[in-house]
Amino acid sequence: MEASAMEEALSKKTTSKGGLRTIPFIISNEVFEKVATFGLHANMILYLTERYHMTAATGTVVLYFWNALSNFLPIFGAVLSDSCLGRFRVIALGSVVSLAGMCLLWLTAILPADRRTPECEARRDDCQLVPWQLPLLFASFVLMSVGSGGIRPCALAFGADQLDRRDNSARNVRTLQTFFNWYYTVLGLSIVLASTVIVYIQQAKGWVIGFAVPVVLMLTALTLLLLGSPFYLKAEADRSVLVGLVQVLVAGYRKRRGPLPPETADASRFHNRAGYKPRTPSNRLRWLNRACALGDNPDKEVNPDDGSARDPWTLCTVQQVEDVKAAVRVLPIWSTGFMPGVIIGQQMFPVLQAKTMERRVGGLEIPAASFGVFSILTLTVWVAVYDRALVRPLSRLTGHARGVTLRQRMGIGLALFAVAMAVAARTEAARRAEALAEGLRDYGPQSGRAVRMSAMRLVPQHCITGLAEALNLIGQIEFYYSEFPKTMSSIGVSLLALGMGFGSVAGSAIVGAINAGTRSGGGRDSWLSSNLNRGHYDYYYLVLAALCVANLAYFVWCGWAYGEEGQNRVTAEEEAVEDTKTKEEQQQKL
C-alpha cells in the first residue's frame, strides 16, 4: 500500500512517545467520559416525560433523533481526524464541546421549567413550559452530539496508535487484540456504573445533583486526556486519503465512455506507483477499473521522471481504486446494521415498563433505568469468555483463526435481536394482562401504581439483546477495521455509529407511523400510548421482531454476494512489503 503521512509518522515511533504508559491516561479518559455520557442517556426518557410533560411516544422520538445525530456526526469527526486535525486534537475538541453541552443540560435542571400559574399549582398536567426551556434542552443535545462525534471515532484508533508497531508480527497482533478486549471490557463496566450509580443519584437526589455529577466526570476526563499529552504519539493527518478516494470517482466518471479493460489485461495496462509491485485491479466492481487504466499512449499520461500521473484526476493508481472498492463493497453489509440501531434505540420503552412493575429485590429498589445494565453485563462477560475460553476450541473445529468468521458472528447477532424482540413481546403481553386483571387499566407509569409482577421478568430480553450486541456490533467494528485500509481506520470504525444513526432515524419513523396508524378518531389509544396498560407495546415488539427476521434474510444475501473476506488487506500487505524492500534498497545505495 502507498505509505501515507499518518503511517509514516507511526512508523517513526520512538521510546519517548506512545507505549503502555499512555494507556492509563486514555483508558481513564474513556471511563469518565462514558460514565458521564451514558449516565445522562439511561434516564433521559423519565426526565422528558416528568419535567417536560412529553408523551412516551414523543419523548422516544426526541431521543431517537438525539441518538441519530450522535451517531451521524462521528463520520465527520473521523474525516476531520484522518484528513485535517489528527485524532488527539479532535478528541480534545470533542471533549470540550461535550462538557459545554452537559453544563447546558445541568442548567435546564437548575432553572424553573413551568410557568407559575394557579392551574399548574392545582394540577401538574395543566402546567405550561417556559418558552426558553426547550431551546436550552435541544441545544444541550446538539452540543453533546457534536462532542461525541469527535470522541467516538477517534478514541479506539488513538489508543491503538500508541501500541501498534505497524507490522504483522504475532506479538503486535496479540498486543492489539489485548488492547481491544480491555477497551470493550472497560466500556462495558463504565456503562454498568453509569446505569446504576448515576441513575440512582438522579432518582434519589434529584435532577440537579444527578446532572452535576456527569459534568464533574466529563471535566475529569478532559483533564486526564490533556495531562497525558506530552507522552502521546500524535500522528499527523493525511489529506491525501480522502482526496485519493474522490480522485478515483472523478477519474472513473471522466472515463465513463471509454473502453473497459478486458479481464485478461496484464499489469502493464494499468497505472501503478513507481517502485511498487505492478499488479492488476480485481474484477469486482470492474467499472471503477477505468480510473487506473492506461490509454494507447501512456507517455502522455505518466511523468517519465517519477512515474506519477500527469493529471491525478484522470488517472489513479491501482491501489487507490482498490481502496475505493473496499469502501463500496462493505456498504450492503453495513446497511444491515440499521435494524440493530432501531432495537438499541428503543430501550427507553423497557424503562417505562420497569416503572410499572415491582422493582424491589430484598430491601433494595432497583431504579427503572438500571435494568439495561443486564445487557451490558452480558456483553462484557461474553467478550471475555469468547476471547479466553471459546476461540481456541472453535478455531480447531472450524479452522478459522477467530473461531467463526466475522460475518457469521454478525449474522448470529442479528438472529438474536429477533429472538430478543419476541421475548420482549411475550413479557409485555404477560405484564399487560396482569395489569388489566388487577384493574390498573387507567394507571400509567406516572401514577406510581405497580403491577404485582417482578421487573426481573425483563432481564431475559436485556440479556439476549446484550449477547446480540456483543456478536453483531463488535463483529461490525472488527469487520470494518479489517476490510478498510489502515489509513482509513477512523472512518471504518465510524461506520458502525453511522449505521446506528440511520437506525435511530428509521426507529423514529417506525414509532411515528405505528403511533399515528393505530390511533383511531374515536379516542382509542394507540399501541404506543403513554399509559402502557391501555396500549399494546407487545404488538410493537412483534413488528420489530418481524423486521429483524427480514433483515437477517437480507444479511444472508449480502454476505453471499460479498465474497471472501480480507482480499483488500492481502493485496495491500503485499504492496507494503514491496514498498519496504524498495526503501531498504534505496538506503543501501546511499
UniProtKB/TrEMBL annotation:
It is found in: Membrane. GO terms for molecular function: transmembrane transporter activity. It is a multi-pass membrane protein. The keyword Transmembrane helix applies. It comes from the Eukaryota. The keyword S-adenosyl-L-methionine does not apply. GO terms for cellular component: membrane. InterPro entries: MFS_trans_sf, POT_fam. The chain crosses the membrane at residues 61-80, 92-112, 132-158, 179-201, 207-227, 366-386, 491-514, 539-562. This is Major facilitator superfamily (MFS) profile domain-containing protein. It comes from Oryza glumipatula.
